[in-house]
Structure to design on (285 residues):
């Protein structure tokens, strides 16, 4: 249901009393954007980040998706131009209704629809499921993915490649070890920088998702039931993907990597990766 909210003032600070539409500065812009029809406010804290948009912002849209789709006059206001964000809205058939406004831009509309906010790092399972179903239906309608359940024999071990901060310095060695250990049973697929449709297709076939902590794990939302997660965690772990896996009823087999942090590359113990993947597959020791 749309959330009722009211502005509050406190000295020089201005914010809405609904999280996460917080930290909005005073409407001091000289330019005001006018809308003649209702708008859906999909602004979200850190929505330029893939995880926060896909797992927190997009599911909120599901509360009013049918209403927006049925009325092309309704605009969806976002504060990010990232390709993944516009691409997701395009898949849902809403590309002509998207308006990107800077967070500080003031606007006027006859009605503002604010879908209930999602707390940072705590997704809502029913909204995730509804979003996934809507995206899969759209892809099937366009002939971009096959319909029906994924055949168990075609499921794969997906390994996330990440460069730069939180990258894995011995990634190639891990890939070689996984292929040597599991290659006769599963295709070992490396996931890197590919387009949105290809991303969904890859994770739709996942049996186990392996890799370092990072936004790539948000794609588990596209994976089928029974998927398991093997995450290389930082020394001080961020458990948002444990929470996501739990909400999706996936097995989680993450482990901490000594010395790994937010900004440095990590070197991961290969035998530990192999052992955790065996556990994720339910193999007996």
């Amino acid at each position: 249901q749309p959330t009722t909210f009211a502005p509050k003032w406190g000295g020089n600070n201005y914010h809405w009393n609904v999280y996460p539409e917080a930290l909005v500065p005073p409407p001091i812009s000289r330019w005001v954007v006018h809308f003649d029809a209702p708008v859906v406010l999909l602004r979200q804290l850190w929505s330029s980040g893939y995880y926060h948009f896909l797992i927190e912002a997009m599911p909120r849209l599901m509360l009013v998706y049918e209403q927006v789709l049925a009325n092309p006059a309704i605009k969806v206001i976002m504060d990010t131009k990232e390709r993944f964000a516009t691409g997701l809205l395009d898949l849902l058939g809403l590309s002509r209704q998207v308006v990107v406004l800077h967070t500080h831009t003031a606007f006027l509309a006859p009605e503002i629809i604010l879908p209930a906010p999602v707390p940072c790092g705590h997704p809502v399972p029913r909204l995730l499921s509804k979003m996934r179903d809507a995206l899969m239906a759209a892809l099937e309608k366009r002939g971009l993915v096959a319909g029906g359940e994924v055949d168990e024999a075609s499921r794969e071990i997906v390994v996330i490649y990440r460069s730069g901060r939180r990258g894995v310095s011995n990634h190639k060695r891990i890939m070689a070890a996984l292929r040597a250990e599991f290659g006769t049973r599963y295709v070992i697929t490396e996931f890197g920088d590919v387009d949105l449709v290809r991303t969904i297709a890859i994770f739709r076939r996942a049996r186990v998702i392996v890799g370092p902590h990072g936004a790539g794990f948000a794609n588990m939302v596209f994976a089928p039931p029974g998927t398991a997660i093997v995450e290389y965690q930082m020394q001080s772990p961020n458990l948002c993907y444990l929470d996501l896996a739990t909400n999706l009823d996936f097995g989680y087999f993450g482990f901490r990597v000594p010395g790994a942090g937010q900004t440095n590359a990590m070197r991961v113990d290969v035998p530990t990766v192999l052992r955790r993947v065996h556990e994720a597959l339910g193999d007996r020791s």
Remarks:
- Residues 234 and 261 are 5 Å apart (CA to CA).
- The helical segments are 50-61, 65-70, 83-91, 125-141, 171-182, 196-204, 240-247, 270-280.
